[in-house]
Amino acid sequence: MKPAGAFLLRLFLSLQVLCGPLLAATPLLRLKGSHLCYSYDLNQIYGENVEFEFLGYRVTSRYLIINIVNRSFCAYGQVVLAGGTERSPGDEFWFSPKEPSGVLLTYGSEIGARYFGKAEEKTAPSLIREIRDVSWTAIQKSMFYMTAKTIEITGSYEVYGRQVRLYVEGARSIGFRKLNLTTGLSRRFAGLSVDKIWFNRTQGLIARLSHSYDSEGRFSSQSQIHYEERSLLKNTTGLNRQIDLMTAMTANLAKRLTLSVNGNYNSSSLWSMNAALSKQWSETVDTRFDLTYNKPVLFKGEAWLGLQTDFAMKELGDIAFGGRYGSGNQLVGNVAYSNLLFKRIRLLVTGSYSRFGIVGSGASSRILSSNISASYSSRVFNLSTDYYLNRDLVGSQKLSQPRLTLSLNQFDFYGSLLSFRLTNIFIMNQSSLSDSLQKSFSNNLTLSLGIKPISIHRTTSLKAGFSLEQFMEMSRRNFTSGGIIINVVRQLGTGISLEGFYSAQSRRKTKGWFIEGTTSQDLSLLFRVSNTTGLSGWISLSYDPKRNEWRTSFAELSLRISEAWRFQTLACYDFLFRKLNNIDVFLARDAGRFELRFVWRSLSKQIVVELIPQ
Amino acid sequence: MNRRMTLAVLWSLLSLSSSCVSFRTATSMPKEPILEKIDFCSAVKEGPDILKAAESIDAFDSDDQRIYCLIKVWIVPGPMTLRWKWYSPERTLWRDTGEVEVALEPKPVSSITAYDRVPTGPGTLAKGTWTVVIFLNGHFAGRRSFQLM
Lengths: 614, 149
What we know:
The complex is a heterodimer of chains A (614) and B (149).
Chain A: H1 3-18, E1 29-39, E2 44-54, E3 57-67, E4 72-83, E5 86-96, E6 101-107, E7 111-117, H2 136-140, E8 144-153, E9 159-168, E10 171-180, E11 191-200, E12 204-215, E13 219-229, E14 241-254, E15 257-266, E16 270-280, E17 285-295, E18 302-312, E19 318-326, E20 330-341, E21 345-357, E22 364-377, E23 381-392, E24 397-413, E25 418-432, E26 437-457, E27 460-473, E28 477-493, E29 496-511, E30 514-529, E31 535-544, E32 549-560, E33 565-574, E34 579-591, E35 594-601, E36 606-613
Antiparallel strand pairs in A: 1-2, 1-8, 2-3, 3-4, 4-5, 5-6, 6-7, 8-9, 9-10, 11-12, 12-13, 13-14, 14-15, 15-16, 16-17, 17-18, 18-19, 19-20, 20-21, 21-22, 22-23, 23-24, 24-25, 25-26, 26-27, 27-28, 28-29, 29-30, 30-31, 31-32, 32-33, 33-34, 34-35, 35-36
Chain B: H1 2-17, E1 34-41, E2 44-46, E3 51-53, E4 59-60, E5 66-74, E6 80-87, E7 93-96, E8 100-102, E9 111-119, E10 128-136, E11 139-148
Parallel strand pairs in B: 4-11
Antiparallel strand pairs in B: 1-5, 2-3, 5-9, 6-7, 6-8, 6-10, 10-11
C-alpha cells in the first residue's frame, strides 16, 4: 500500500474509533427482535421474536438466549430455519456461530434432532446447555443492562447494540444510536481506541490511547500512549506535561522465524528498545539474536548485542550457551546444563563470566560465578545439595557456599489424625580475600506436628498445631523457637458459631550457659453469624493471658438491604488506648463482573468509590 | 488559558459523542410470557398467592410417591395456555397434558405458578433420565430433566 493510502486509512480508522464504530467488521451474528436486552453484569443476551441469518438460513424464533461467557447460543419456541425452498420447523435450536454448527430439537411423539453445519450426532450434545442459565428476570435485575433494536456480536465476542436504551439499577438513561455494550472487558479489538480521558485535581488531564493490530497470526502489535497535562492545575511542581509511549510488535517472518520489537519512551528523556530475532532450526535447536538499547535518566545510554542458543537433547539433557556484548567493552557469557538422571535426580550446572563497567569510575568488575545443584525426590523425602562459587577477579575475593537440604514429606499417622513434617537446611559459607579467610555455618531444623479437627461433641470440634524450630550457628549461638495453636469451634445454631483460639510462642537464645528469650500468648474469641439472606457478621475479642489485659476487638456487620445491595461496616477498638481505632462503612453492589463499593473510612475521612473487577 | 483549554476539551468530547446519541430507542418490556422457573419436587407447599416446591430436587427414587413439575411463569396480558410433555429415558412421549387454559381473571397478577404431577409406583416409570418440556401458548418455552433411580 502506498504511504499516502496507508496514512488515509489510518486517519479514517482513527476517526472511526473516535466518532463511534461506524466501520465495524462483518459481525458473527446480527440479531433483530421485538425485545432484545443485554446484561453487562452477566454478559448475557435475551431476545423475543428474534430473526437472524445462520449458515445461509433465515432463522426466526419466539425466544433467544445467549451466554457470551460460556459461548452458548439458543433460539427456542416456534423456531424456523428457512433457506430457499427448504423450511425446517423445530422447538429448540442450539448453535455455534463460529464453527458454524447447530442442532434443532423437536418435541413431538419423540425427541427428534436435526444437525446443521459441522454438527454431528456425536458432537451435538456439547452444544446443548440448560436454558435456565440465562433468564430475563436475572438480566433486568442487573446493575447495568441495555435494550436494543438490533444487536451485533463480533468474532471476538464484542457486543454492539443499535438504538440502545441503557438502564442503571432499573432507571432509564438517554438513548444511543450505536454502542459497544461490552466495553470494559479486557478483550481488545483491532484498531485505535481511546481508553481513558479523565481529569483530577492532582494529576490534571489524563488521556490514554491504545492501538492494536493483528493479521491472522502473522503480525501483531500493541501500542499505548499515556498523556498527562498538568499545566491546567493551579499549583503544580515538575513538568507541565508527560508522555509515555509503549509498543510491542511480533512478526512471524517465516515458519520458524520470529521478529519481536519492544519499545518504551518517556518524555523525561528516558527510553529503551529491544529487537529480537528467534529462529528454531529444528525441534532440538533454537537461536535468539537480540539488540537492546537502554537510555536511563541522567546517565549515558548503553547498547547490548546478544546471542543465545538452546539445545534440547532429550535423554542427554538441555544445554544453553549465551553471550552478550555491551558498549564500553562490557561482556556477559553464560552456559547452563540441566538433566533428569535415573528419573528422580535433577541436575543443574550453570556458569557465567561477566565484565561490567562501574558508573563514574571508568573501571570495570570481572566476576566468575558457577553453581551446581542436584536434588533427589522420593515419596518419603527430598534431598538437595548445591554448591555456589563466586569469584571476583578484580578484587581477589572468593565466596563459596555449599548447602544441603533434607526434607521429610508430610506423613500422617495415628489413624491419619496426626501429621508430621521435618526440614533441615545446612549452609556453609567460606569467603576469602587475598590475606584472610572467613568460615561460617548454620543449621536450621524445623519440625511441625498437626492434628486434624477432632469432633469432641456433635457441635464442637478441636484443631491443634505444634511447631518447633532449632537454629544453630557456628559461633555456638542457638535459637530455639516453638509454638502451639489450639482452635475450638462450637456451633450454636444454623449459621451461628463461637470460636476460641489460643496460641503461645516461645523463642529462646542460648550461648554457652546463658539463656534469654521471650514468650507471648494470645487468647481470642470469635462470635460469627452467617446468614446469606439477612444479617451476618462477626465480633472478635483478643486477650493477653500473660499480661492479664484485653488488647483489641474487631467487629464486622453485613446487612443485605436488597437482593443486590449490601451494607457493611468494619470497626476496631483498642483496649490499651481505650479508643475506637477505625471504622469503615461500605455500601456495596454485587454486579456480576464487578463490585461497586461506596466506602467511608474514618482514618482518611474520605468517601471513596471503588470498582472491583471479579 | 486554562479555561480555554477546558472549554476546548469539553467541545471536542461533545462533538465526538454527538454522532452516537439519539432518542429513538428500543422498547423495554417483553411481549411474551416468560417461563421463569421449572422445579421438580415430591411435594408442593401452598403459599398465600403462589405455590412453592417443598424441596427442589433433580433425582428421585422409589420412596418418592409422586413427582411434581412446578413452573413459575411471568405473564403478559391476554389469553394463556400451559402444556407439559413428559419424555421417557428412551426419548419417547410418555405423557401430554394437552393445552391447559389459565384463567387470569378476576384480579390481574404478574406471575403464576402451576404444576403437573405423575405417580412413581413400582413399574410405573422407567429408570433413567426423564425430560419434561413446557409449552406456553402452544410454543416451546423450556425443559428440564430429572433422574429416576
